[in-house]
Amino acid sequence: MKLKIGYRALIDSAMEKIETVPLNQAQELLQDSNVVFVDIRDIRELERDGMIPGALHAPRGMLEFWIDPESPYYKPIFGEGKRFILYCASAWRSALATKTLQDMGLPHVCHLEGGFSAWKQANLLVAEKPSKSPKS
Predict the structure, then answer these.
(1) Is the pLDDT of residue 32 over 70?
(2) Residue ranges of the Rhodanese domain (predicted)?
(3) CB count, 10 Å around CB of 101?
(4) Could you give the CA distance from residue 66 to residue 116 in angstroms, rounded to a whole number?
(5) Which CATH architecture has domain 9-121?
(6) From edge to edge, which strands make up the β-sheet containing 83-87?
């Protein structure tokens, strides 16, 4: 089967249109109360690998529903005017998700360069998955 567009082309296209936050800048933003790191990985990834301290877990499959005030699943944190830095394992899902949320009109949304894998490889702070997300 030949697809019209492959996953790599989708990611490349998204990357041209979104902001990518470098690891060193992201580390500085970790203490900023106007910045929310959003972990979009599967719950099993969080349990296995940990997450960025204080991050909000928002599963990739629920993001569009959580940011839309018209949705029964809306999470008010997404209406607080904060800056959102999305991340996944390797910055592929987060690139696509950032582009989608940007298209929906969520302001101040970007993603983490290299994803959580790069974060861990740089020996930056990692926390265990909390039993309940701290910012939900």
Answers:
(1) yes
(2) 31-128
(3) 24
(4) 22
(5) 3-Layer(aba) Sandwich (3.40)
(6) 20-21, 109-112, 83-87, 35-39, 56-57
